[in-house]
Amino acid sequence: MIAFAMRLPKFVLGVLLFIGSLCQAQVYQGIQLVKASLLADQNGIVPGHPITIGLQLATAPGWHTYWEYPGDAGIPTRIDWKLPAGFTAGPIQWPIPARDTEPGDIVNYIYAGDVLLPVEIQTPAGLKPGQTVTINAHAAWLVCKDLCVPGKADLSITLPVVAASQPANGDLFASTRAELPMKGTPPFTASWSRQGQALVLHIAGLDPQAAFDFFPLPGDVQIGHPKVTPPTVNVLLIDPKETAASIDGVVLMTAKDGSAQAWPLPNGKPTASISAIGTGGVASSGQSSLLYWLGLGFVGGLILNVMPCVLPVIALKIFGFIKQAGESPRRILALGFTFVGGIFAWFFFLAALIVSFKLAGHQLNWAFQFQHPAFVAVMVVILLLFALNLLGVFEIVLPERLQAKVYDASGGEGYAGTFWHGVFATLMATPCTAPFLGSALGFALASPAPTVFAMFGSIAAGMSAPYAVLAVKPAWLRYLPKPGIWMVRVKQALGVLLMGTVLWLGWVLVEQLTPRTDTFPAQLASALAKHQIVFVDFTADWCVNCKVNEHLVLDSGPVQEAFKRKGVILVKADWTRGDEDITAYLRKYGRAGVPCYVVFSPDGNPTVLPEVITNDIVLNALNQAQS
Amino acid sequence: MKTRLTLLLALVSVAAFGAPQPGDPAPNFSLTDVNGQSHSLAEYKGKYVVLEWNNPGCPFVHKHYDSGNMQGLQKTAEAKGVIWLTINSGASGRQGAAQSDIKSFLASEHANPTAYLIDSDGKVGRLYAAKTTPDMYIINPDGKLVYDGAIDNKPTPDPEDIPGATNYVKVALDASMAGKPVPVTTSRPYGCSIKYGGEY
Question: Which domains does chain B have, with CATH numbers?
Answer without folding.
Answer: 20-193 (3.40.30.10)
